[in-house]
TrEMBL record, chain A:
One of its GO terms (cellular component) is plasma membrane. Keywords: Amino-acid transport, ATP-binding, Nucleotide-binding, Transport. One of its GO terms (biological process) is amino acid transport. It comes from Halobacterium bonnevillei. Residues 22-269 form the ABC transporter domain. Probable component of a branched-chain amino-acid transport system. It comes from the Archaea. This is Probable branched-chain amino acid transport ATP-binding protein LivG. InterPro entries: AAA+_ATPase (IPR003593), ABC_AA/LPS_Transport (IPR051120), ABC_transporter-like_ATP-bd (IPR003439), ABC_transporter-like_CS (IPR017871), BCA_ABC_TP_C (IPR032823), P-loop_NTPase (IPR027417).
Automatic annotation (TrEMBL), chain B:
Coiled coil: none annotated. GO terms for molecular function: branched-chain amino acid transmembrane transporter activity. It is found in: Cell membrane. GO terms for cellular component: plasma membrane. The chain crosses the membrane at residues 6-28, 40-59, 79-101, 108-127, 157-174, 211-231, 243-268. This is Branched-chain amino acid ABC transporter permease. It is a multi-pass membrane protein. PANTHER family: HIGH-AFFINITY BRANCHED-CHAIN AMINO ACID TRANSPORT PROTEIN BRAE (PTHR30482:SF10), HIGH-AFFINITY BRANCHED-CHAIN AMINO ACID TRANSPORT SYSTEM PERMEASE (PTHR30482). InterPro entries: ABC_transp_permease (IPR001851), LivM-like (IPR043428). Pfam families: BPD_transp_2. Keywords: Cell membrane, Membrane, Transmembrane, Transmembrane helix.
C-alpha cells in the first residue's frame, strides 16, 4: 500500500524542498476498493500561497482530511516543519499549527460572531472549569487580550458590524469569512482553506482574495482548494493539480496552465 | 403549636422539592443546554447521590427493621451532613465519569439510548445489590440533620432555607462557569464538534467534564433529597424523574440557568396540582346549577376512585405541558431562540 515512500517524484526534487513548511509525501487513502488519494506528493513553501486544483472527485477534500487528521492515511507521510503529523487526531494537528476551513462552513450557529472568534483563541485559563471559578483576575486579563484580537481580526475581515449577531444569521460568504477569522484566531503556521470563494458573491470574492493576499504579505502560509482557474492563476505562487487521486502537475501557475495533461484533465481529452 | 397548617405546610413541601428539582435541572442543563449532550439517564446520578448519602449516614443494620445492608458509616448529625452531601456529589460525579467514559463519544440520540440503558442497568443494580442498598426495602432511617432540636414545622422551614441556599450557590457557581471561556468551550462543542476539533479543542475531554459537572450537581441533589425525606427507596428513582427534569429544562429554556430553576418550580407545582383535581371537580360540580349537573360526568365520567389516579394524572399533566411548550414556545420561557434553534440537531 505504501509503495510511494520516496519523496523523489520529480515535483519536489529540488533544493527548495527542504524549506517546505508542509510536505505531503506519497499519501494514500482508500475507502474499501476505492483509492481516493493515490500517492500524492507535493510541498508547500513557507510564506507562499499554494492552490490545489483538480476536477470534481480528484481527491482534494479527502487529501485535506488526511492532512488534518480527520482521516487516517493508509500510506505515506505528512510533515509539518519536518515532523510527521499523519495519524495524529484533528485536535493535535490543529495544536501543531494547521488551521483549516470546511467546504460547507461549520460555524457555531447558536453563538455570536464574537463568541465564534474568541472560541478559537489558544491557551485560555478560563477554559478549565477550576480556572474559570478560581482565577477571575487572570481570566479578565486574558479575555481582554482575546477580545482585542477578535476586534482586530473582525475589522480586518470587515465583519466588525456583525460582531454581536448570531452566526446563524450570516450569509454563506460571511460564514466563510467567519471561518477564516476563527482560523486566524487559532494563529496557525499554515492556513488550509477548502474552496474559500465557492458560492460567495463576486464582490465579496474579491474582498476575500484581497484579504488572503494581505495575510500572505504578512508572512502567512496558505494552501487552498479552488475550482475557478482564474482565481488560482491570479492569486497563487504555486499550483498543484490533482486528478484521479494523483498529482498531475505542480509548479508556477503559468507553467501548469500550459501543461497538456492539465488541459486534458480539465477539458476532457480534447485533441489539439 | 403548629407553625404550619394545611396550605402552608403543603407549599413548604412543594418549594423544597422545587429546590431539589431546580438542582437536577441545573445539572441536566449543563449536559443538554450548554453542551448538547442528550443525557436520558439523569435519574441515575440523582439516585447515586441519594444512596451515597444514605450509606454514609445510616445507623447500624441491627437497629433497623428489614435491614440487609452491610455497609454503613453512621456519621453523626449535624456534622456528618456536609460530609454526606460531599459524598453524594462525589459519587454522582464518579458515576457520570464512568458512564461518560464509555458513552460520551456517541453523538445525539445514540448517547440518549446509551445513557437511558445505563440508567436502567444502574437501577437494577440498586434493587439487587441488597448488601449495599438494602434492595427494594430501601434505606429508611436516613437521619434528618438538626431534626432533634427543632419541632417538625421548624425543621421543615429550616430545611427549605437550606435547600434554597444550596440552589442559589449552585446557580451562582454555574453562572460564573458558563459566562467564563469554559461556557464558550461547551457551547462550541455543542454547535459543531468537527469545527471545535479543528480549532485545537479536545472535544471528548470537554464533553466528559460537562458530564461530570452535571452528574455532581445531580448527585448533590440526591443527597439533599435523601436527608429531606429520610428514606431512599429504589421506586423513587424511575425514568419519570429524568423526563420531569427535561420538561422543566425545556419549559424554562435550555441553555439558561435562570430558566432551569424557574422551569423546575413550575413543573413541580404543576405535578403537585394534580392532587387537587378531585377537589376541583367536586367544587365545580357543587357550584353548578342543578340543570347542568349532568355536564361534567357526561364529559369526563365520574372520577375514578382508586389510589393510582392522581399519580397517573401527573404523566398527563407533564405531557400536556411538554406539548404546549414545544408547540408554542420551543425556546422556553428564558431561552434564546437564536441560540437553541439548532440544539440537538445532527451536524451537517
Amino acid at each position: 500500500m505504501s509503495s510511494n515512500q520516496s519523496p523523489a517524484d520529480g515535483n519536489s526534487g529540488d533544493a527548495a524542498a527542504s524549506a517546505d513548511l508542509l510536505e505531503v509525501d506519497g499519501v494514500v487513502k482508500q475507502f474499501g476498493g476505492l483509492v481516493a488519494v493515490d500517492g500524492v506528493s507535493f510541498g508547500v513553501e513557507e510564506a507562499s500561497i499554494t492552490g490545489l486544483i483538480g476536477p470534481n472527485g480528484a481527491g482534494k477534500s479527502t487529501l485535506f482530511n488526511c492532512i488534518t487528521g480527520v482521516y487516517d492515511v493508509d500510506g505515506g507521510a505528512v510533515r509539518l516543519d519536518g515532523e510527521e503529523i499523519q495519524g495524529l487526531s484533528p485536535t493535535k494537528v490543529a495544536r501543531r499549527g494547521v488551521g483549516r476551513t470546511f467546504q460547507t462552513p461549520k460555524t457555531f450557529r447558536g453563538m455570536t460572531v464574537r463568541e465564534n472568534m474568541a472560541f478559537a483563541a489558544r491557551h485560555q485559563t478560563g477554559e478549565r472549569a477550576l480556572g474559570a471559578l478560581l482565577r477571575p483576575g487572570t481570566i479578565r486579563e486574558e479575555e481582554a487580550d482575546v477580545q482585542a484580537r477578535v476586534d482586530d481580526t473582525l475589522e480586518f475581515l470587515e465583519l466588525d458590524h456583525l460582531a454581536d449577531d448570531y452566526a446563524s444569521g450570516l450569509s454563506g460568504g460571511q460564514r466563510k469569512l467567519l471561518e477564516l477569522g476563527r482560523v486566524l484566531m487559532l494563529d496557525p503556521e499554515i492556513i488550509m482553506l477548502d474552496e474559500p470563494v465557492a458560492g460567495v458573491n463576486p464582490s465579496l470574492t474579491d474582498d476575500l482574495l484581497a484579504r488572503l493576499r494581505e495575510l500572505n504579505d504578512r508572512g502567512r502560509t496558505i494552501l487552498f482548494i479552488e475550482h475557478d482557474m482564474d482565481v488560482v492563476m491570479e492569486n497563487c505562487d504555486r499550483v498543484v493539480v490533482m486528478h484521479n487521486g494523483q498529482t498531475l502537475a505542480s509548479g508556477p501557475p503559468d507553467i501548469v496552465q500550459d501543461d497538456e495533461r492539465v488541459v486534458e484533465a480539465y477539458l476532457g481529452g480534447v485533441d489539439r | 403549636m403548629a407553625l404550619l397548617t394545611g396550605w402552608a405546610s403543603f407549599l413548604v413541601a412543594v418549594a423544597t422539592i422545587g429546590c431539589i428539582y431546580g438542582l437536577l435541572t441545573l445539572g441536566l442543563n449543563v449536559h443538554y443546554g450548554y453542551t448538547g449532550l442528550l443525557n436520558f439517564g439523569h435519574v441515575a446520578f440523582f439516585a447515586a447521590g441519594a444512596y451515597a448519602s444514605a450509606i454514609v449516614t445510616m445507623p447500624p443494620p441491627s437497629t433497623v427493621t428489614n435491614a440487609s445492608y452491610e455497609l454503613w458509616l453512621n456519621l453523626p448529625m449535624p456534622l456528618g451532613f456536609p460530609v454526606s452531601l460531599a459524598a453524594a456529589a462525589l459519587v454522582g460525579g464518579v458515576l457520570a465519569f464512568l458512564i461518560g467514559l464509555t458513552s460520551v463519544r456517541l453523538g445525539t440520540h445514540y448517547l440518549a439510548i446509551a445513557t437511558f440503558a445505563l440508567a436502567g442497568v444502574f437501577s437494577d443494580v440498586l434493587v439487587n445489590e441488597a448488601w449495599l442498598t438494602n434492595g427494594s426495602f430501601g434505606m429508611n432511617s436516613v437521619p434528618k440533620p438538626g431534626r432533634a432540636g427543632l419541632t417538625a414545622d421548624e425543621w421543615q422551614l429550616a430545611y427549605l432555607a437550606f435547600a434554597a441556599l444550596s440552589l442559589l450557590v449552585t446557580y451562582l457557581v454555574l453562572e460564573r462557569l458558563v459566562n467564563a471561556p469554559f461556557g464558550r468551550l461547551l457551547k462550541g462543542v455543542r454547535e459543531s464538534e468537527a469545527a471545535a476539533k479543528t480549532l485545537g479543542k479536545d472535544t471528548n475531554a470537554v464533553k466528559l467534564k460537562s458530564f461530570v459537572i452535571g452528574g455532581m450537581i445531580a448527585g448533590f441533589a440526591g443527597g439533599v433529597y435523601a436527608h429531606y425525606l429520610g428514606s431512599v427507596v429504589t421506586a423513587q428513582f424511575v425514568p419519570h424523574v429524568t423526563f420531569t427534569v427535561y420538561a422543566a429544562m425545556l419549559l424554562g429554556g435550555a441553555a439558561s440557568n435562570t430558566g432551569a430553576v424557574v422551569g423546575a418550580f413550575l413543573v413541580v407545582a404543576f405535578e403537585e396540582s394534580t392532587r387537587f383535581i378531585t377537589t376541583l371537580y367536586n367544587w365545580i360540580q357543587s357550584t353548578l346549577p342543578d340543570a347542568l349537573s349532568g355536564v361534567l360526568p357526561a364529559l369526563f365520567g365520574p372520577l375514578p376512585n382508586n389510589p393510582s389516579f392522581i399519580p397517573s394524572m401527573r404523566f398527563v399533566v407533564i405531557g400536556v405541558l411538554f406539548v404546549l411548550v414545544i408547540r408554542y414556545r420551543p425556546e422556553g420561557l428564558f431561552g434564546d431562540p437564536a441560540e437553541i434553534q439548532a440544539l440537538g440537531e445532527e451536524e451537517d
